[in-house]
Amino acid sequence: MNFLIYLRKWLGLDVFENFLWINAPTMSNLATDTYIEGTQIIIGENSCDLILRPNANVEIAGIFKGKIIGLGNNVVRIRGALDGILSCDKMILFQGGGLKGNAYISKLVVQQGAVMDSEVSFMELVPFIHAVERIDFDFIKKL
Fold it and tell me: What is the mean pLDDT of residues 22-33?
């Protein structure tokens, strides 16, 4: 599947994106800072910071307060509420979803009925080059 993700990114196609979310595991009620690998769906009330490894994807289906920092080729889907800072490659804000805070993204998809009370910048907050070695939770606490 990783080959298909890289091919999609290289071609600029989102044809395979829905396959990322089929049978994705869920995480709930997070209270400690967490690294995310693979594709995860976050439900419940969560208050922590997340670092998304390269090619990791996350869907916020509950309430999330904190920072989500992607280290490259990350998709973040918001069906619930996100209050904080978001840095990722692509953000999808679904109807009924809400974003409050700052977003630093490359691509944005907003469905009708979504709520945005935020400042959106189309840029990288975290540089991808050697980001895995430099980015940790001490770093993002300062953002």
Answer: 91
